[in-house]
Design brief:
The protein has an eight-stranded mixed sheet, with helices on both faces. Helix 1 packs across helix 2 and helix 3 crosses helix 5. A hairpin with a 2-residue loop joins strand 7 and strand 8. The chain has five helices and eight strands, in the order ββααβββαβαββα. It has 200 residues and is α+β, with helices and mostly antiparallel strands. It has a single domain, classed as Aminopeptidase. Helix content is 36%, strand content 31%.
Length: 200
């Protein structure tokens, strides 16, 4: 069972997913600043955001990848590799039970272009094929309809609601839990390939 991933980029039809590098701080900071009103609606780290938050994230991401704790990917377009489009991450919540979680955000000025769906589909291929996960879950803040659409298109099933799961600023947010099993993913991946969401 593989717990570590190689650092080579993973490709989809339009996108490159790759590990973060220290020099990514500037492009990621620019993407966050361009998206703060949307990010701050649902993500605690976006409240009072400063560039140092991105610097620390990248430092932690490099360490987490090296130790196999989590695998964060920068999302870039093949035709513009310098512009940061968002993040997608995969990590184990139980290695013994082959259970993992996936999370993502996409910069506000490129939403509604299928980038989140394509990047998440490619990350699921990593989770199930490379990391050999049996089950992948994601948690989505209630009201985040755009994120719900992504997981619905990818075949996740809604499994329940966690009450007051995350505090964002002064607000407690409920989160819905969505799950996808490896056998469900294998049934759906031909559709993924037909949509050019991943290769093979």
């Amino acid at each position: 069972m593989a717990h570590l991933l190689g650092h080579e980029p993973r490709l989809s039809e339009r996108l490159i997913l790759r590990p973060f590098r220290r020099k990514d701080t500037g492009p990621v900071h620019e993407a966050v600043r361009a998206s703060l009103p949307d990010l701050a609606e649902y993500l605690p780290w976006a409240i009072g955001y400063q560039r140092s938050v991105t610097s620390q994230f990248i430092k932690d991401s490099i360490g987490a990848w090296a130790s196999g704790r989590a695998f964060d990917f920068a999302i870039r377009a093949k035709d513009d590799e310098d512009r940061h489009l968002g993040n997608v991450s995969v990590w184990y919540t139980s290695k013994a039970n082959l259970v993992g979680e996936i999370g993502y955000w996409i910069r506000s000025d490129v939403t509604n272009q299928g980038i989140g769906t394509e990047a998440t589909a490619r990350a699921l291929q990593i989770a199930f094929d490379e990391l050999q996960m049996h089950r992948v879950v994601t948690r989505i803040a209630v009201g985040n309809v755009a994120s719900e659409r992504i997981v619905q298109k990818l075949g996740f099933l809604k499994e329940g609601t966690l009450r007051d799961e995350v505090k964002v600023g002064t607000r407690w947010l409920d989160h819905t839990v969505w799950g996808l099993l490896d056998r469900e993913w294998r049934q759906a991946k031909r559709h993924y390939a037909a949509e050019s969401w991943h290769q093979g």
